[in-house]
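Before relying on records like the one below, remember that each one covers exactly one chain. Contacts with other chains, cofactors or solvent are not represented anywhere in the record.
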Amino acid sequence: MCLAALGVVKVATPDQIRRLMCPGTKDAATVRGGLKDLESERLVISPGSAVHVREDGVRVTEKLWTLTPAGLGVAAVVLDRPAREMGGTARAAAASGAKHARAVTDVLAAFLQTAPEPTQPVVRKHRPGASAPATTEQPDQSELPEVPEGLGPLAAWSTEAVLPTGGTFLAPARGSLRADMVFAAPGHDLVPLLFVEVDNGTEGPPIVADKIERYVRFFARRVTLSGRELPLWRTVWPASPGEGYPPVALVFTKNVGAAALQARMREIGDLARDHWRGTWDADSPAHEGGKPDGYRDYDRKIPLLATTLRQLAEHGPHGPVWWRYGHQSWQTLTDALDNPDDYRAYSVRTEARRQAEEAERERARREQEEHRRGMEATRWWCPTCGHAVYPEAGVASGSECRPCRSDRERTAAQGQNGQPAGGRLFSRRPRT
């Protein structure tokens, strides 16, 4: 338990390990006992301590624990990871209080949302006279709090992952960065790959935006492997669904007012706009009868998300806690990762318009056909020439057709003028 936790987060207090691994325990005594046993086996060490203020205002000092080189190797076995992927022991960070590392661990606990389970006191391995607990009473399951769905398991997470903008993973070039956290779960339905940056508010927005720019530079790197070109990041992590680069999440851990948080989020978004905003591709010309439509192309863009540690801890990673840059509201992770204005959505609208236009043409055709049938049903035959006559305004059913009626009226008019009806030089040719 302790080895797995420290193998991922590198440095943590006993209470943080408890929240990561066994939140059902009443306090961190069980974890502290386990760490002392591992310390006696020279697998962990406590090179420093941390001070934090509890919710009730009490200042608490806790030891910080980290793995020894031997413990790092054992943790690699526990996590089923190659030793080269385990990173360092973070002993120096622990000695200095590990403020940022502790914030990363808090964020990981909020992502995992480990469900509390009934536990029994654990017997210390290296305590003289240790014996089984006197009581066998099972904790009341109903007293355990319910937690929202998390994003796990623990083994899918790693911290301080090297992202070389130049050089290699083992020898990154200057200017490369380390991702605070990476979630990698091949086959995960929603998010097989997620990079997380923990923001303590100690760096200005330009520095945070510069990290996003370096993410883009890293994601853009390509290599040739077995005769096939592919992104460098795909040699380590699983493919990300959808277009564009893998998503990056910013988690703000500092408790500030809503206005200050929004201002910081807005400034970071403005500075990094070119890296998350899709390129607009509009119809040319606009489709008939409507406004110009189009879509955003998210190729080579980062889905950039943001949330706070408080929201994440309260609602979990699947709750409506995510602000996707370019979207208009707080959303669930599913909705935040969606691109409602991409080509996929545009093609759906285009198909809907095509179907609507086809339906309108079909409606007009049916209307014309119904009109024709109605005219055919009410026609009659001209009593003079025998041709079909169709109803029209001012014409009685059964009367002559228009040409015959015109001939008759003209003949009558000529007779009134004194000209013989048969005296015309040219007479009307009979219709055939």
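The chain has three domains: 1-96, 98-115+144-341, 379-432.
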